[in-house]
Inverse folding.
């Protein structure tokens, strides 16, 4: 809601019509003769060859899956194989028009796209460059296999084709010599150095990720375009639709830019739909969708209708023509674009597909229209090549594929990861754990004024960095350095330090985020690095994933932790998993800020740390003091791992109560995983997660003053990773521990920690570790919250009832075993 | 602040004690350390001193009452303070005369819960790992713990309380320590010796009930000491392979010695040495050559002693008591006699120190004075033998072809056949007979 754009009630109600342009449908009609003016005969033969390679590759996998035998070689492949027989012309046609700077993202059915894009890049890279890429990749692990065991006749491009086919197949067969050490597999194979970005087993999930890659190009002024491939079925998914809209946002052309630069240009992304008519078995046109043709969608997203077009995907030349035109538009800054490439999957959704949803007649009709055979005929008739020449190409491919398959299934040459010998092989890839201050130290950051002049920086400079003054009097809220300031300082520093850093989310810019963490930053940081996103949680998080994959660093914000569900796949499957799924090739420097509310009831008050902590690959932190907020944010922003950064709305305005000298000036890191003893004690340990720290401190005070019990309060600060040593040390001392947090207690991080503490401290425990969490209810309204969230008195109740009866103490809450069993029986 | 005085628990097996006398009455002023009341267990008598100075506000149990251990007995405090809150459940407090109204009134309001968590409301047998570890480290006597954790769990503070009160078990004793006993070590530490509780040793009670003309019978509750004796006797007989060897010896020499001691001993400053002292002495000298009878049988281990701690069965008004004469092998006859007299006397008076009721390695039970000619004493586990001393009878023996009458004194040795064989036991008896018949030589030795 920029003030520069006036919302005029006079215009808002103006009468008129929305006009649509015609959307071209299969309008390509060039003759071979015309095309031969553009393409050489060699190009034409190469187009044929690339399609034939894909066909053979997929046929091989189909044979392995259905007969456990390809060309006389026996093999059993238990993994998935979503084949694209029939879609070769679409893949090759698209890739032909792309160069090495163009990135392509795909789906679970993307072997064809990988091979096509790879073959296209091999053709476009010069030999030296090509060889260096292969040699450096995984220290030559893939190259050495094909160099040693196959004869490429000294031809680097032939060697590279072997490299591509072998790297992809070894990956599909889960071999250590695969492109991702076998950790990605069929549905996630990729090879960034050829512009083959990760494919995705979650339908439609690549759309926001590809959007993020385009955002990286747009915000960092990088050359090339991004292709987001998906099937027609995926267009029913929210993340895809969110991405179409996000990419089309007005602000990109209307508001972005600074100092007269970077202002032109829409999002350089082509949403390419391989429209094979089915989402698994659901027929999109006629059954599960209402758009009739996918291309119609373009008209819904922006006035240029996303330059949408429907193309004959059975004709590689038609596809090349269309993709080339769209690419040109994108390079001219007129993106985004949408292509509806009509094709057909002759093979099943997977080898277990019995085609219950289509007739044999239909399949036969499409087989008769086979794009490779049709193109072959065209070339022969056009005298571009003879049948013998083309058959020889086909024969060579079969031989090559057989050879590659033998290599890929040879356990000596292509071993699998040996998790007995290297038990930590996967564990070591879950996080990259690097400290990278700037993701691109070669560039200056785009900023609009020196940092010192940023109004917020000036404001913070004048603030008192403690909660109380020298006389112990509370500092006025206006003058006090609070948790928001603690978050802001490392973020603004990073904006100046790392040119790739961008921050976005709903209402981030002018509003400063719903809770003002980014307040008064608009003057310093340009739009293309700091903007309001549409209310599209999937696209917000998913785009950050794509942004990070390309080498950038992003802070994205979901306003309320309760909205995590809206970006479930992007957080849990994408952000969390890509580092390990890429065998450590990708880094994921993303900070996902989520805030835990209160006062706003059932859908705006939830601590969902447990959901995030459960998913391998995410780091999860939850600071509650300004010093910890600053130190942990600094660590998060210097790191290369995805961090879900929990904040609590209860304490945004809190000053520093624990550090005597206040929040330290300048850079410092609070290391991830290290809890902090906020109050020393000897009789009982209270381990806190999040803002409940302050209620625990209150309980500790009461225990000390009224009952002579000395409580040690430890703030977890981090949840993943978490070092139990300090907690164990404390529990060894006290023998008693309460784990307290605002999450509903069932299945919570508290429960997990209680279980771990029991294992680690069993012999030292004087009673069971007791969890004091919120009730397993909906969060009621603010007025009733004290019966829902743990209170200081609950902590004392739990101690007295479960661990250490306190003479004379009358509990208010029922923590007895009978009550526990009853509640559990009822699921409450 | 008013404080309750509880009936102390003198060992885990002791469930209750009898108040024998009150030195104070309600309303009396008491000084810290002054004796409030005396009470007795099945073994000993004790005095309970006032823990604080103040006024005796309430007495919940009268003389002769059998009071459960740890239950409040009385309350000390200041005038006007509430004593009723400490009244044991179901007991009406004897209100302090000074403030009768106040106590009743407060009683109604006092929350039951307030007193409950401190005392062991219920005992589940559960113990926290931490409490167990502390007990192992400190040797705390868990059998005496008063659990204050949830659901009767023993928690760290309960063990710490035991340690603070010195209620611990020695390392040597801990292995066999199954049933709580009073400790004889410092501050009541349970020593290995305590596990051979003399209470275990007793003969079957002679049925000597005088016929009465009045009611046909009378039901009398077994006192604790009787119950314990009954249990231990049964355990002894069922847990061991006991058998008894009987023999006798010519007591001429020891009777002569006794005569001469009687005549001139006093002048020499010697105590009145009895036949029993002489037998104790002889045993203390002979037994070290027969390790099997001066031993403990501990499951699969036999512990042979290099010292002789003689248990002496004493017939006290309350029942059998067996004080121990430690290191008898090091004592002269005169010293042994003197010490034996001392402990027998205090045992009979019921005021013997618990230290002296433990630690025996061999026991002697003398029924000779009752005219018993032969009997089967029962071993006090884990000891392996017990010597019964019988009366003197006149017997004939042939000396130089003539029948000579001599005083024959019977000896009945019960031994545990698991530990030693009949021949071993017989050899001990033979040497003992030899020593007693040549006691003068033994004294020289």
């Amino acid at each position: 809601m920029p003030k520069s754009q006036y919302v005029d009630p006079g215009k808002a109600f103006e009468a008129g019509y929305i006009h649509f342009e015609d959307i071209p449908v299969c309008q390509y009609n060039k003759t071979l003769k015309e095309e031969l003016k553009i393409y050489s005969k060699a190009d034409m033969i190469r187009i044929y060859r690339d399609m034939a390679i894909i066909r053979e590759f997929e046929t091989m996998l189909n044979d392995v899956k259905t007969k456990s035998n390809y060309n006389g070689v026996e093999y059993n492949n238990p993994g998935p194989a979503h084949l694209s027989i029939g879609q070769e012309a679409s893949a090759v046609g698209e890739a032909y028009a792309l160069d090495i700077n163009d990135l392509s993202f795909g789906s679970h059915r993307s072997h064809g796209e990988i091979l096509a894009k790879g073959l296209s890049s091999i053709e476009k890279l010069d030999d030296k460059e090509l060889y260096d890429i292969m040699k450096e990749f995984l220290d030559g692990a893939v190259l050495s296999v094909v160099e040693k065991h196959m004869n490429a006749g000294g031809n680097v491009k032939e060697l590279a084709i072997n490299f591509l086919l072998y790297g992809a197949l070894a990956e599909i067969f889960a071999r250590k010599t695969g492109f991702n050490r076998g950790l990605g597999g069929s549905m996630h194979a990729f090879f960034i150095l050829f512009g083959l970005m990760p494919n995705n087993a979650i339908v439609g999930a690549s759309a926001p990720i590809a959007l993020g890659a385009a955002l990286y190009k747009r915000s960092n002024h990088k050359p090339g375009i991004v292709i987001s491939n998906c099937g027609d079925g995926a267009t029913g998914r929210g993340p895809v639709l969110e991405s179409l809209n996000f990419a089309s946002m007005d602000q990109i052309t209307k508001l972005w830019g600074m100092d007269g630069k970077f202002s032109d240009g829409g999002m350089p992304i082509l949403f390419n739909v391989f429209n094979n008519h089915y989402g698994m078995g659901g027929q999109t046109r006629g059954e599960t969708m209402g758009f009739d043709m996918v291309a119609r969608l373009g008209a819904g997203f922006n006035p240029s209708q996303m330059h949408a077009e429907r193309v004959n995907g059975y004709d590689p030349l038609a596809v090349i023509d269309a993709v080339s035109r769209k690419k040109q538009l994108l390079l001219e800054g007129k993106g985004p674009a949408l292509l509806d490439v009509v094709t057909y999957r002759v093979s099943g959704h997977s080898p277990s597909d019995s085609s219950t949803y289509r007739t044999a007649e239909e399949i036969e009709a499409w087989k008769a229209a086979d794009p490779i055979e049709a193109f072959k005929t065209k070339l022969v008739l056009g005298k571009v090549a003879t049948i013998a020449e083309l058959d020889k190409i086909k024969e060579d491919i079969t031989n090559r594929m057989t050879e590659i398959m033998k290599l890929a299934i040879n356990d000596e040459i292509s071993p699998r990861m040996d998790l007995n010998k290297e038990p930590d092989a996967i564990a070591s890839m879950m996080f990259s754990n690097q400290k990278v201050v700037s993701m691109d130290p070669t560039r200056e950051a785009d900023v609009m004024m020196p940092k010192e002049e940023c109004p917020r920086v000036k404001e913070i400079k004048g603030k008192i960095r403690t909660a109380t003054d020298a006389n112990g009097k509370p500092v006025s809220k206006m003058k006090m350095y609070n948790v928001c300031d603690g978050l802001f300082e490392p973020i603004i520093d990073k904006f100046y330090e790392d040119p790739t850093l961008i921050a976005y989310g709903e209402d981030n810019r002018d509003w400063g985020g719903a809770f003002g963490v980014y307040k008064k930053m608009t003057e310093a940081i340009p739009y293309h690095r700091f903007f309001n996103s549409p209310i599209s949680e999937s696209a917000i998080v998913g785009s950050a994933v794509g942004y990070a994959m390309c080498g950038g660093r992003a802070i994205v914000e979901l306003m309320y932790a309760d909205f995590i569900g809206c970006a479930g796949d992007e957080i849990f499957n994408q952000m969390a998993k890509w580092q390990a799924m890429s065998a450590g090739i990708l880094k994921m420097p993303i900070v996902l800020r989520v805030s835990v509310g209160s006062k706003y009831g059932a859908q705006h008050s939830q601590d969902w740390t447990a959901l995030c902590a459960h998913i391998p690959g995410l780091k999860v932190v939850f600071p509650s003091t300004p010093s910890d907020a600053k130190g942990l944010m600094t660590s998060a922003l210097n790191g290369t791992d995805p961090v879900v950064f929990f904040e609590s709305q209860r304490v945004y305005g809190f000053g520093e109560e624990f550090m005597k000298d206040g929040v330290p000036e300048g850079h410092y890191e609070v290391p991830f995983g290290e809890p902090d003893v906020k109050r020393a004690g000897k009789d009982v340990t209270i381990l806190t997660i999040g803002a409940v720290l302050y209620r625990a401190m209150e309980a500790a005070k009461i225990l000390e003053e009224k009952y002579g019990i000395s409580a040690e309060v430890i703030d977890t600060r981090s949840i993943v990773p978490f070092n139990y040593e300090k907690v164990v040390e404390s529990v060894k001392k006290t023998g008693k521990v309460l784990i307290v947090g605002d999450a509903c207690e069932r299945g919570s991080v508290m429960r997990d920690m209680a279980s771990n503490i029991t294992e680690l401290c069993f012999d030292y425990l004087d009673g069971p570790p007791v969890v004091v969490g919120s009730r397993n209810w909906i969060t009621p309204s603010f007025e009733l919250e004290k019966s829902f969230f743990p209170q200081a008195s609950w902590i004392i109740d739990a101690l007295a009832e479960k661990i250490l009866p306190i003479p004379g103490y009358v509990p208010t809450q029922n923590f007895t075993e009978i009550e526990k069993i009853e509640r559990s029986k009822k699921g409450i | 602040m008013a404080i309750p005085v509880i009936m102390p628990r003198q060992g885990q097996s002791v469930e209750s004690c009898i108040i024998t006398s009150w030195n104070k009455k309600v309303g009396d002023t008491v000084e810290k350390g002054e004796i409030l009341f005396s009470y007795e267990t099945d073994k000993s008598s004790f005095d309970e001193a006032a823990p604080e100075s103040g006024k005796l506000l309430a007495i919940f149990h009268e003389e002769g009452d059998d009071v459960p251990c740890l239950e409040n007995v009385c309350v000390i405090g200041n005038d006007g303070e509430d004593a009723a809150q400490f009244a044991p459940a179901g007991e009406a407090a004897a209100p302090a005369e000074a403030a009768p109204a106040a106590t009743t009134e407060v009683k109604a309001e006092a929350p039951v819960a307030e007193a409950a968590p401190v005392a062991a409301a219920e005992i589940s047998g559960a113990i926290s790992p931490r409490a167990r570890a502390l007990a192992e480290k400190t040797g705390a006597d868990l059998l005496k713990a008063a659990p204050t954790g949830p659901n009767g769990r023993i928690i760290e503070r309960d063990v710490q309380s035991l340690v603070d009160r010195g209620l611990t078990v020695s390392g040597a004793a801990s292995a066999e320590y199954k049933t709580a006993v009073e400790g004889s070590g410092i501050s009541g530490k349970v020593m290995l010796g305590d596990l051979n509780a003399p209470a275990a040793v007793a003969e079957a009670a002679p049925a000597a009930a005088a016929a009465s003309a009045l009611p046909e019978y009378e039901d009398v509750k077994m006192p604790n000491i009787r119950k314990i004796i009954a249990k231990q006797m049964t355990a002894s007989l069922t847990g061991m392979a006991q058998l008894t060897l009987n023999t006798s010896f010519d007591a001429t020499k020891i009777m002569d010695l006794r005569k001469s001691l009687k005549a001139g001993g006093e002048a020499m400053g010697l105590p009145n040495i009895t036949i029993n002292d002489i037998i104790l002495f002889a045993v203390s000298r002979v037994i070290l050559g027969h390790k099997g009878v001066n031993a403990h049988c501990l499951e699969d281990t036999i512990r042979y002693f290099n010292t002789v701690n003689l248990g002496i069965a004493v017939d006290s008004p309350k029942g059998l008591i067996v004080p121990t004469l430690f290191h008898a092998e090091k004592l002269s006859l005169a010293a042994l006699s003197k010490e034996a007299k001392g402990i027998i006397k205090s045992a009979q008076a019921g005021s013997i120190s618990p230290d002296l009721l433990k630690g025996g390695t061999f026991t002697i039970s003398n029924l000779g004075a009752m005219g018993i000619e032969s009997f089967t004493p029962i071993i006090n586990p884990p000891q392996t033998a017990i010597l019964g001393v019988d009366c003197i009878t006149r017997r004939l023996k042939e000396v130089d072809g003539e029948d000579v009458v001599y005083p024959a004194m019977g000896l009945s040795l019960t031994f545990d056949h698991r530990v030693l064989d009949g021949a071993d036991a017989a050899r001990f008896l033979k040497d003992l007979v030899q020593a007693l018949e040549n006691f003068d030589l033994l004294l020289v030795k």
About this structure: Chain A has three domains: 35-122+202-257+267-413, 451-648, 676-826.
